[in-house]
Amino acid sequence: MQKKSEKNLKKCQKFQIFFPGTVWMLEILSLIRQDGDPRWCRSVPNWDRGPWLETLLGLRRARANARPRIISSHLPVHMFPKAFFGSKAKVIYTVRDPKDVLVSLFHFARIFRPYRDPGSLGDFMDKFLQGDVPFGSWFQHVRGWLQLRGRENFFWISYEELQQDLRGSVQRLCSFLCHPLSPAALDAVVTNASFAAMSHNPMSNFSLSPGFILDRSRGPFLRKGISGDWRNHLSPEQSRRFDLVYRERMEGFSGENSGTFWEGRNSGVFGVKC
């Protein structure tokens, strides 16, 4: 069974990886795949458009889709199937300001019933900094995946970059995916991948999820779609403590001690062969 899954994995076209929080990139990739036509996004739930690799039926669901296929995952690199590393499948890795990741994951943990109660934000921050949250340490997740920078089938981009220049980001993604778009199709991707469009689309906003999975009385799945919201939640002291741990855990990464490497234009395409 494992060999069959590994074989199927090698046939997959692209993966999108993100420490918890994948919905926006999945919407962008879905629209690129359809040349900007939003009908697929409006008729098929996002969990069927980009099934989760780590779920029991993830690969089977992905195979039901026509190529090019999209598979989503939160897995850290050391838990990712080894078949990928010998395949031509492409990975898009999205990184985000870890303080915003903390706040987003906290709100998700409050509404996602299978998770344990996160307690207060302060309590949850302690767990986050210790790596005692779903999918482990953010620091290890980022450092692990970004070791693949420079591979021709690996592309990384920041959430902040998507917000600053969505059109340019989509163009760079299309270049990496060898999937050029006409100006009209590019406009359609940008329009339909907006937070407003997603939040009103039941196929993207998880309003179709059953009540025993999401407790929507405690808040929506898609909250704000902004950067820097952590400033509305963390106290100055909490922010300083977070920074201390960040500097310690990310020391030496990319030759910098504490730089906010996710800011600005970071995405790169290295020797892509189309």
From TrEMBL:
Gene Ontology cellular-component terms for this entry are: cytoplasm
In its keyword annotation, does this UniProt entry include 4Fe-4S? no
Q: What is the lineage of its organism?
A: Eukaryota, Metazoa, Chordata, Craniata, Vertebrata
Checking InterPro entries in the record gives: P-loop_NTPase (IPR027417), Sulfotransferase_dom (IPR000863)
Q: Which SUPFAM superfamilies match?
A: P-loop containing nucleoside triphosphate hydrolases
Q: Per its record, how is this protein called by name?
A: Sulfotransferase
Identify its protein family: Belongs to the sulfotransferase 1 family.
**Superkingdom assignment:** Eukaryota
Q: Provide a Gene Ontology MF annotation, just one.
A: sulfotransferase activity
Q: Which UniProt keywords apply?
A: Cytoplasm, Transferase
The species this protein belongs to is Catharus ustulatus
EC assignment: 2.8.2.-
Main enzyme class: transferase
Q: Which locations, inside or outside the cell, does it occupy?
A: Cytoplasm
The Sulfotransferase domain is annotated at 21-253
